[in-house]
């Protein structure tokens, strides 16, 4: 009951935030130079033509009317048409296929990160100071110290040279996904393991862990029955957001393997002054972060019985 | 004084001579009062050391004590006196940087200091020796239900099925005075008050049906009315489950309420041990005098409280003589030279102080301590 109330309350707050953010982003976009709406041949247009273009796009209306139209179109799933990037094509049609590709790679990478990183962190904490911990720390250090481009290239060349795996991604061939997914997940494994280890060590020094040991549990029983879930909670909050944000893709990996993903799309759109595409992408990323945080909070609520929105009764933790 | 100094530098008294303070009267080792009782725990010359920042600290310096089945023993002492470390060593729960350096802890015939594997400890912990911790607010896992945490202890040590363990948990919850156990079973620690949580911690401790219970400052984190309830509960459970209980505390009020015997610890050593009456009404060690003097009950309203001057000794260094001597205004020269043995005042009452040596000058305890012994009335007040 409390959970349902909490979820609904949290959802409503997220919707309000979203409406506010989207409106604010739209209005800020109005401050961009209008040149972005004329396409490549703006120098060939005279003032009259330019005014015509702006008028047809509804950009000469007062701001409140523009905002109203923006919301009306948005609710119909219309985010406008690309001006430069792919002239005349709906930005939704440009973004969705690319987002799907990036999400596919990103999701696979996140799964590997968590499935490998969490056990690694747990074991590092369990054998703190011993061989496995040192080995894990070495890995974390290497991954963080080495520029990613170095091991990305090594993996690509190594995979090709040793196993004959294709150096480029071919849609429909699952095997060609292996190298980019591995490259994407290495950094994540390191950071997941590092944080997991840290949260496990934090839990180790808690009083209730002492009590669990005094009950007569072995170290492993304490680690798995008591510490794991408690240590996972701080990681859970960011999990949905990190999955969602894989939509934005990785510029380097995607160009290395020629994956038609989202990597660098926003930068390209900004550089080429494709205002509608920029606007759509910025809106998308705002929505993703709001949804990510919402899902993170709900996940936390499911894992941690102490959380209920705005309920001040549970003060004593 | 000079005379005594000469005596002591030669050699100090063999412990077997057990001389009473009045001098002359020698007690045999096991007289009536302790003969019929079975030793459940016997600690001999226990030394516990810690490694801290590259230095070795001696937290417990050769402590010996016997605990008899069914009694309640209070270990009192100020913070850092080693009382908690001492009791934790009975369960192998010393922090990773600490170890038992020498000595033995015989528990029911088995030397606990010889246990090295965790598997063996799990047969002791919770099952035979259990512990109640100081802070109930942090002693329970916040993410698991109260019932689940108690049941877990039952499942670890018994051969109960999950359903049986649940039923048993309801009974234990009722035993520790928690109403409506079926509803409480499903609740989480944050839905319980501090006193209720301490009841749950006690429930977890007794779930494994231990014989021996260590209560490490069980009431320190609770307010006064709840303290009395918890102590009452522990006393009741001790009777019902035939427990031997060790209370670790710095609260002499708690001691007076629950203890049969009292051991006073100072700087990693038990300086005086005796029955509750003996310690309160006939204390012999200057540190015990000082400790009792600092009780606010002894003072009239508005009068300044008595404090012990100075600081406890540095445990990184070897302590010579009586550890309390530097803070003791009436210290003898001998106190600085050699560590006193235990002198027995009665078969149950012993103190480590040269004052009890027959050759020592007569040093009177402070006036209010003497009055305490004569009146003996404050305990009921």
Features:
heterodimer; A: 317 residues; mainly alpha; MetI-like fold; 13 helices; 69% helix; flat; disordered C terminus; B: 381 residues; alpha/beta; eight-stranded mixed beta sheet; 32% helix; globular
Structural summary, described in words:
- The complex is a heterodimer of chains A (317) and B (381).
- With 317 residues, chain A is mostly helical.
- Chain A has 13 helices and no strands.
- Chain A has helices at residues 2-29, 47-56, 63-75, 91-126, 131-145, 148-163, 178-204, 207-215, 219-236, 239-244, 251-256, 265-271, 275-303.
- The longest helix of chain A is centred in the middle third of the chain and has 36 residues, at 91-126.
- The two termini of chain A are 21 Å apart.
- Chain B is an alpha/beta fold and 381 residues long.
- The radius of gyration of chain B is 22 Å and the shape is globular.
- The two termini of chain B are 40 Å apart.
- The chains are: A mainly alpha (317), B alpha/beta (381).
- The A-B interface holds A 206-208, 210-219, 225-226, 229-230, 233, 303-306, 314, 316-317 and B 91, 93, 118-119, 121-127, 130-131, 133, 135, 137-144, 152-153, 156-157, 188, 190-191, 193-194, 201, 204-205, 207-208.
């Amino acid at each position: 009951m409390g959970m349902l109330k909490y979820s609904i309350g949290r959802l409503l707050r997220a919707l309000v935030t979203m409406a506010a953010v989207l409106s604010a982003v739209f209005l800020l976009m109005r401050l961009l130079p209008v040149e972005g709406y004329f396409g490549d041949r703006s120098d060939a247009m005279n003032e009259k033509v330019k005014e015509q273009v702006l008028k047809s796009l509804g950009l000469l209306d007062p701001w409140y009317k523009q905002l109203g139209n923006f919301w009306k179109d948005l609710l119909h799933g219309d985010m406008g048409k690309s001006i430069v990037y792919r002239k005349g094509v709906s930005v939704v049609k440009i973004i969705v296929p690319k987002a799907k590709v990036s999400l596919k790679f990103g999701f696979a990478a996140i799964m590997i990160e968590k499935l490998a990183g969490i056990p690694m962190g747990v074991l590092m904490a369990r054998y703190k100071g011993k061989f496995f911990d040192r080995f894990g720390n070495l890995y974390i250090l290497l991954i963080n110290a080495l520029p990613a481009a170095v091991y990305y290239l090594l993996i690509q060349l190594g995979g090709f040279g040793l196993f004959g795996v294709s150096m480029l991604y071919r849609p429909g061939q699952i095997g060609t996904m292996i190298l980019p997914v591995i490259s994407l997940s290495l950094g994540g494994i390191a950071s997941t393991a590092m944080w997991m280890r840290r949260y496990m060590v934090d839990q180790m020094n808690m009083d209730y862990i002492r009590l669990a040991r005094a009950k007569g549990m072995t170290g492993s029983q304490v680690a798995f029955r008591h510490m794991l879930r408690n240590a996972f909670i701080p990681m859970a909050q960011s999990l949905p957001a990190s999955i969602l944000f894989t939509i934005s893709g990785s510029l380097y990996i995607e160009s290395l393997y020629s994956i038609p993903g989202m990597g660098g799309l926003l930068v390209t759109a900004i550089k080429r002054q494709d205002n509608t595409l920029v606007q759509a992408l910025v809106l998308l990323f705002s929505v993703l972060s709001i949804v990510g945080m919402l899902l993170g909070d709900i996940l936390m609520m499911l894992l941690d019985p102490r959380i209920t929105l705005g309920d001040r009764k549970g003060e004593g933790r | 004084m000079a005379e005594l100094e000469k005596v002591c530098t030669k050699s100090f008294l063999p412990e077997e001579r057990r001389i009473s303070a009045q001098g002359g009267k020698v007690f045999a080792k096991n007289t009536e009062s302790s003969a019929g009782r079975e030793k459940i725990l016997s600690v001999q010359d226990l030394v516990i050391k810690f490694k801290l920042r590259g230095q070795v600290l001696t937290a417990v310096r050769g402590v010996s004590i016997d605990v008899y089945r069914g009694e309640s023993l209070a270990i009192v002492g100020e913070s850092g006196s080693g009382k908690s470390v001492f009791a934790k060593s009975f369960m192998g729960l010393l922090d990773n940087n600490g170890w038992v350096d020498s000595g033995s802890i015989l528990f029911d015939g088995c030397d606990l200091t010889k246990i090295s594997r965790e598997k063996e400890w799990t047969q002791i912990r919770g099952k035979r020796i259990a512990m109640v911790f100081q802070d109930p607010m942090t002693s329970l896992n916040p993410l698991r239900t109260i019932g689940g945490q108690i049941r877990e202890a039952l499942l670890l040590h018994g051969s109960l099925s999950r359903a049986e363990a649940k039923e048993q948990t309801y009974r234990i919850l009722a035993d520790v005075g928690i109403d409506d156990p079926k509803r409480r079973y499903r609740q989480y620690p944050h839905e319980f008050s501090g006193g209720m949580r301490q009841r749950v911690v006690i429930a977890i401790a007794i779930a494994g049906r231990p014989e021996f219970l260590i209560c490490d400052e069980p009431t320190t984190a609770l307010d006064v009315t709840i303290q009395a309830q918890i102590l009452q509960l522990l006393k009741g459970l001790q009777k019902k489950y035939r427990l031997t209980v060790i209370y670790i505390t710095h609260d002499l009020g708690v001691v007076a309420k629950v203890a049969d015997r009292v051991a006073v610890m100072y700087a990693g050593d038990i300086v005086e041990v005796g029955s509750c009456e003996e310690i309160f009404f006939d204390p012999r060690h200057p540190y015990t005098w000082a400790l009792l003097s600092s009780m606010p009950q002894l003072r009239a309203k508005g009068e300044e409280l008595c404090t012990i001057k100075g600081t406890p000794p540095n445990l990184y260094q070897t302590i010579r003589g009586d550890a309390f001597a530097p803070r003791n205004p009436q210290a003898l020269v001998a106190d600085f030279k050699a560590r006193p043995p235990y002198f027995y005042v009665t078969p149950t009452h012993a103190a480590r102080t040269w004052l009890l040596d027959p050759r020592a000058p007569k040093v009177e305890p402070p006036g209010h301590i003497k009055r305490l012994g004569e009146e003996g009335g404050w305990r009921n007040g």
